[in-house]
């Protein structure tokens, strides 16, 4: 087990392994996304309350789920990197951040588009929208902290510490926002959750959540491979790989 | 030298340095007063509206004033090398940084707590609201200082870190702001505030127990 772990942490091995896995992940995710989209947009019946508008759920829920899942992944890999001093783990965390931020943006935008027909407004200070927005700020903070260091080792450790501090704070922020809004007087927003969701609406959603996770995995591996190449560009194996001799370039 | 004396020595040193430079000490306070007095000028001085906006405006002004003073928290120590001595010293770095944070709160947070009631009166907050504002600032500003210390330690090695520091710590400070302003607002309209005050206290205790360790880890990263 540990042997395998250490082997995985070696950049050349990871580079090779990621190169094998990423096309499989990408193609299977694209096929599943196609099936799920067809199921969601064509086969699923229109909602009796929300009409066709509910179909935005098939983009909104997977991206919201991924936006938090990716942050958790970032914090875990940063923790691994800080504790065992594995540079590869930091490289994975660094490559995950922009993807997570993108999914957060998609989740916010689809939430706003969904809010317009359902709530009658693009933006509502609803607890879930608000904490999603704060999550986006935290992603931006992480990325700009990394970008402000020239030394990549320093960027790794500072960013890693921020990711770990942030993951302790995320639940606090999330529940604060919920309690904060429950302290508000005034009309409460009608929640969108239907009490139950029928089977032919549900399976495309579950399929799309799984497919988006695979898609994230594929993009993460592509990005991490590029990141590893960039970080190791002076090492022997990268130069062998690219067919360059030291001193030739 | 035992730990308590070490801690006291750190706090005393920070206070002595700060009192030699009055300007740095006063400017966050002036900023607090000016931000708070901009709102009635930009809006209109209607009693009703100011009373409704007061808790939020005063809390945001206090938050921004804290942020303004955080930038320089560890900078001078890193530039003159005394931070490296603290890292190398046999005493725990977290305790030294905690001492600096306490001094920061005494110099920046406590004056805000003292000054806030005067500003609250200019926002026509009733007595209950003024008391709630003082109480929540008293519990909330130490939490802000502790959170800010982590951000200042992380950005200590970065040039032009002002904007970055705000981006890092503002999202983390949001719960304090929400509960502080909400409690003041509730008190001003004559309601119970024990809920948000307990939550603020919980945040303070959590910050007190964990964040000095995070600051120490961040300083170690920034220094090497």
Description:
The complex is a heterodimer of chains A (249) and B (224). With 249 residues, chain A is an all-alpha fold. Chain A has one domain (18-186, 198-242). In chain A, 78% of the residues lie in helices and 0% in strands. Chain A contains 8 helices and no strands. Chain A has helices at 2-8, 11-43, 57-84, 87-119, 127-147, 152-183, 199-231, 236-242. In chain A, helix 4 (87-119) packs antiparallel against helix 5, helix 4 packs parallel to helix 6 and helix 4 (87-119) packs antiparallel against helix 7. The radius of gyration of chain A is 21 Å and the shape is globular. Chain B has 224 residues and is mostly helical. Chain B has one domain (3-223). Chain B has helices spanning 3-20, 22-42, 47-70, 75-79, 82-88, 93-122, 127-154, 162-188, 194-223. In chain B, helix 2 (22-42) runs parallel beside helix 6 and helix 7 (127-154) runs parallel beside helix 9. Chain B is elongated, with a radius of gyration of 18 Å. The model of chain B has no long low-confidence stretch (mean pLDDT 91). The interface between A and B is medium-sized, with 25 and 30 residues.
